[in-house]
Design brief:
This protein is of the alpha+beta class. It is built from 12 helices and 19 strands. The strands form 4 sheets. Strands 1, 3, 4, 5, 6, 7, 8 and 9 form an 8-stranded mixed β-sheet that branches. A 5-stranded antiparallel β-sheet has the order 13-12-15-19-18, with no helix packed on it. The longest helix has 18 residues. It is elongated and about 95 Å long.
Length: 524
């Protein structure tokens, strides 16, 4: 199955299925003692003051990836048949609670560190640790909206993960201190490795009506995703009225704020409750909450986690009484940062076979002016790939872009000669220092050259021959030696080189291929 076919299959299945930086002491944020149920809700009001880390996006952006609710009803369990609680944070694939520090990186932290780490390590059955979790560092400084400590749009991070993948924290450590002089990541070897595991697609769920009880059918789709092991990314004004119930931090009412925050939902509990109206009775609308994982370290909430009551999703509370009349702030939906609806986002991650890689290097140019698009030309037909967004800031810098050619090329097993790969630039910067097509191990297959009388266009012809393992000078004795060394375990070969090393085309690379090449050279 090709990568394109795999993505189409994933999209079809998805459609069917389914810091604040603490500026005061911890004690100023977290109530030190467990308070009894029934105390007036306004006792626990708290204002938050944090740097923004997520850029708002209109509902229309998320509507384009909306799950097919009508087509998925048949896949939902019967009403009331969901388990009463789910907690994905207990999974071995969920990473330790992270801390974004003084960087406006919550959108990247919630998507890359939490969502992508969980999905990628689950896909590859790797227990998540602080070292093998994926780092927000590279995508944050690549995507930040300005030269200051600015935020990032969640879907921009998804686009980055689709084009580039991510790096492990052990390879790209995350700094909790913002660095205005930070240079972009430049280890192209690690960048190519990151292409092996990338985001394939994301899908969204919305809740627009009022939630009145834990078994409300409006919660079914969200619960279905969580029951199927999907973390859900959300954005919020994160200006909550809060309460303590035992060890739990309960967030029961959200108000507008000057900036927003992104985090993940890791589970739910239909029996989690708090007497919001203080009448000594747990009303049905006071039961049920989503468990969230935040990125402010383990001092937040209960070891980094908190609970958002289902009722907080409503623009008008379903909890009876006039308990809100003395509370300040304009009430809004808990997961609707500058949106009309509560939005939940799930991602799917895939492993990819990477064959042809485009590598572009620039020197001292404005980052955001670089906007390349992959091009393939074959038999008079041109295939245009999507525009790859360059780094967002205007800082002039030297940097390298590395991305898979799979969106225009099926790969070496299907396409290996008689076509060309290239780049067309749509930004103001048209002249890279170098532009080349490499394999997944960084070996240059061929340099791209400028197209005459066509500014910003670069092309290279791809004409590969079985046996020409080093891509140079046709079939030579060096190719036979490379195959022999690979078979002896002394050297490794890229995916393209393994295809070319299979000289007899039997699907295996062994010494028989080296012997056949030597026999060929003896007779030619």
């Amino acid at each position: 199955m090709t990568n394109t076919e795999r993505i189409c299959k994933i999209k079809k299945r998805l459609n069917k299925a389914f810091k604040r930086v603490l500026t005061a002491s911890v004690s100023a944020f977290i109530l030190s003692a467990a308070l009894p149920l029934g105390i007036a809700a306004e006792t626990f009001s708290e204002d938050y003051d944090y740097i923004g880390g997520v850029i708002p996006e209109p509902d229309e952006v998320f509507e384009a990836h909306l799950c097919d609710e009508d087509g998925s009803e048949e896949d939902l369990p019967e009403r009331g048949s969901f388990p009463p609680s789910v907690d994905l944070s207990t999974s071995k694939y969920f990473p330790p609670i992270g801390d974004q520090g003084g960087v406006g990186s919550c959108a990247v932290f919630s998507t890359v560190y939490y969502q992508f780490t969980y999905e990628a390590n689950k896909l590859n059955d790797i227990a998540s640790t602080a070292e093998n979790a994926y780092s927000p560092q590279w995508p944050y400084y690549y995507l930040r909206s300005q030269l200051s400590n600015g935020g990032v749009a969640v879907t921009s991070v998804y686009g980055f993960l689709e084009d580039h993948g991510a790096l492990h924290i052990e390879d790209n450590p995350y700094s909790q201190v913002y660095d205005p002089e930070h240079t972009l990541y430049s280890d192209t070897s690690k960048m190519r490795q990151a292409l092996n595991t990338r985001l394939a697609d994301y899908t969204t769920i919305k809740i627009s009506s009022s939630v009145t009880m834990p078994q409300d059918q409006d919660l079914d789709m969200v619960k279905n995703y969580l029951n199927n092991g999907k973390l859900l990314n959300v954005s919020s004004y994160f200006n909550f009225n809060i309460a303590r119930s035992g060890d739990d931090l309960i967030m029961y009412r959200c108000c507008t704020h000057s900036s927003g925050h992104a985090f993940v939902i890791v589970g739910y509990d239909d029996n989690k409750s708090f007497d919001v109206n203080g009448n000594g009775i747990i009303e049905k609308a006071e039961k049920g909450a989503f468990k969230i994982a935040n990125s402010w370290g383990s001092n937040f909430g209960n070891d980094g986690y908190a609970w958002v009551l289902y009722d907080a999703l409503n623009t008008e509370s379903a909890i009876p009484g006039n308990w809100e009349e003395n509370l300040s702030g304009t009430r809004v939906r808990a997961f609707a940062f500058e949106n009309d609806y509560n939005w939940f986002r799930a991602i799917t991650v895939c492993n990819y076979r990477v064959d042809y890689v485009a590598e572009l290097t620039f020197d001292n140019v404005s980052r955001k002016e670089v906007r390349p698009a992959l091009i393939k030309q074959k038999d008079g037909v041109t295939v245009h790939g999507p525009v790859i967004a360059g780094p967002c800031t205007t800082k002039e810098d030297s940097f390298t872009m590395v991305f898979d050619c799979y969106k225009v090329c099926q790969g070496v097993e299907y396409e290996n000669n008689g076509f060309s790969l290239g780049i067309d630039f749509y930004g103001n910067v048209k002249n890279p220092v170098s532009a080349k097509i490499t394999d997944n191990r960084g070996n240059t297959i061929k340099d791209m050259t400028p197209v005459e009388n066509q500014a910003g266009s670069y092309r290279t012809a791809i004409n590969l021959t079985r046996g020409d393992v080093d891509y140079k000078d046709g079939i030579t004795n060096k190719d036979a030696v490379m195959i022999s060394r690979f078979c002896s375990g002394w050297d490794n070969l890229s995916n393209v080189q393994r295809y070319l090393a299979d000289y007899n085309g039997d699907g295996q690379v062994n010494n028989a291929d080296a012997m056949l090449i030597k026999r060929y050279l003896a007779t030619h």
